[in-house]
Design goal:
single chain, alpha/beta, TIM Barrel, 6 helices
């Protein structure tokens, strides 16, 4: 298998350079471009897989859908069961961030998140059995 890659756009003006790099490396099938900024996501709509990162509700799940995103990336405490279910009804994947605690990771997966972002894969590796 192959590990997926999230490339976060921190500066909206970098959107096209990032897209060009992903395409040159033929990484479209396993890379998603994510951002807190809506402008680059809108610009890349239909070109690459995109995801909206957010730390403050409300309304970000419908906004992600409106932008053509495939993924929502809420700060972990916003990934409630209700929010995850709503995102899934809109056919969005949910990836919570940043989770470094095995118990919290397990709880999030029980809520239905599709993935988590972590700073410490080693800590979570033994705790999460698929």
């Amino acid at each position: 298998g192959r590990v997926g890659l999230f490339l976060e756009i921190k500066h909206p003006e970098d959107a096209f350079a990032v897209a060009k790099l992903v395409e040159e490396k033929k990484a479209q099938d396993w890379t998603a471009v994510i951002s807190f900024h809506t402008q680059p996501l809108e610009e890349l709509r239909g070109r690459l897989t995109t995801g909206l990162v957010y730390s403050k509700p409300p309304g970000m799940i419908p906004e992600a859908k409106k932008l053509g995103c495939s993924i929502v990336l809420p700060k972990y405490m916003l990934a409630t069961k209700k929010a995850v279910d709503f995102a899934h009804r809109l056919k969005l994947f949910v990836v919570a961030w940043t989770v470094n605690d095995p118990a919290k990771a397990k709880e999030l997966f029980e809520r239905g998140v599709d993935g988590i972002a972590t700073d410490d894969g080693e800590v979570l590796k033994g705790a999460l059995v698929v």
